[in-house]
Amino acid sequence: MLRYLPAPLRGVICATLLALNTLIFCWPLFVLSVVKLLLPFLAVQRGVRFLMHQTASAWIAVNSAWMHSAQKIRWDVKGLESVDMDHSYLVTSNHQSWVDIFALQHQFNGRMPMLKFFLKKELIWVPVIGLCWWALEFPFMKRYTKEYLAKHPEKKGQDLVTTRKACERYKTNPVSVFNFLEGTRYTPEKHAQQKSPFRHLLKPKAGGIAFVLDAMGEQLKSLVNVTVHYPEGRPTLWALMCGHVRRITVRIEQLEIPGQFLNRNYDQDEAYRAAFQQWVNQLWLDKDDLLDELNRAG
Fold first, then answer.
1. Total domains present in the chain
2. Which of 56, 72, 94, 172 has its CA 20 to 30 A from that of 49?
3. In sequence order, what are the residues at sequence separation of 6 or more whose Cβ sits closer than 8 angstroms to the Cβ of residue 247?
């Protein structure tokens, strides 16, 4: 067991295991993606996507193994029994650390369809893993600032087009479309810069999940609202690899998606956009209160 080794050595070994794990499992994904491109038949596509998801699930299982070997994490998880492998979900969570991704993958692996994260378009160029994300059909988004759109109005709505194309591929297999509503990891500096009205959260960006609801509509069973909390403080990925993460709290709440938010145009319908933003802000107010409770309990 790695737990009995010095922490820096544990970190080096776990980082090496993560790299080797990725290099080993990337090749089946690349081969299967070529098969998917060459044989664009529905039955083949479904089968190939199933095999690709099984490959990704094995990659996650190996990551869970080195996490467990490096430290004994005390998990406090509630609500996991509400999800299953047979339905499609829209999933969101607060975002504090890269550890969030490993924690969520560990908990949901084999319990709900594979999480497909919204990613910045630039991340496709990350060596090896960028191609893996592309092969697994993660949605790559290019976000434009208001200033840029004012100068290039032809780019308006491009996010929605990208999301629709990505979500079209999800209609043959159950999927969990994941979006960090804050858009970036929480830090006190970002919190102060935003003048966020929330105590423990950055401001949510509603546009991403609104586009998913427009593109997928009633295909989604529900919104899975996840809250991740670290009682010992926000950890780094290196801390996880060194075995310093002892406790992780996860709360999972399955919420019905209001019917009035399905198949609506977020960009062009001002009344819908205002109502949707109000709904998302209420989710964040409730999450902020929950984090307050978890902080007091922790």
1. 1
2. 94
3. 73, 74, 76, 230, 231, 232, 298
CA atoms of 202 and 120, how far apart (whole Å): 18
Q: Token pair for residue 3?
A: 């737990």
pLDDT, tens digit, 9 for 90 and up, residues 212-268 = 888 787 789 999 999 999 999 999 999 999 999 999 999 999 999 998 888 788 877
* Helix H or strand E encompassing 90: strand 88-93
- Cα dihedral 208/213/214/216 (nearest 10): 120
Where residue 194 sits, what CATH number does that domain have? 3.40.1130
Q: Is 263 helix (H, G, I), strand (E, B) or coil?
A: coil
Instruction: Give the pLDDT confidence of 83-107 residue by residue, as tens digits.
Output: 999 999 999 999 999 999 999 999 9
Domain that holds residue 76: 72-297
For residue 67, the 8-state DSSP code is H
Interatomic CA distance for residues 82 and 282, integer angstroms: 22
Residue 131 lies in a domain: yes
For residue 130, tell me if it sits in a domain.
Answer: yes
90 DSSP β-pair partners: 177, 223
Q: Where are the alpha helices (DSSP H) in the chain?
A: 7-38, 42-70, 99-108, 129-135, 146-151, 158-168, 188-194, 207-216, 237-241, 270-297
Q: 7-38 vs 42-70: helix axis angle to the nearest 10?
A: 180
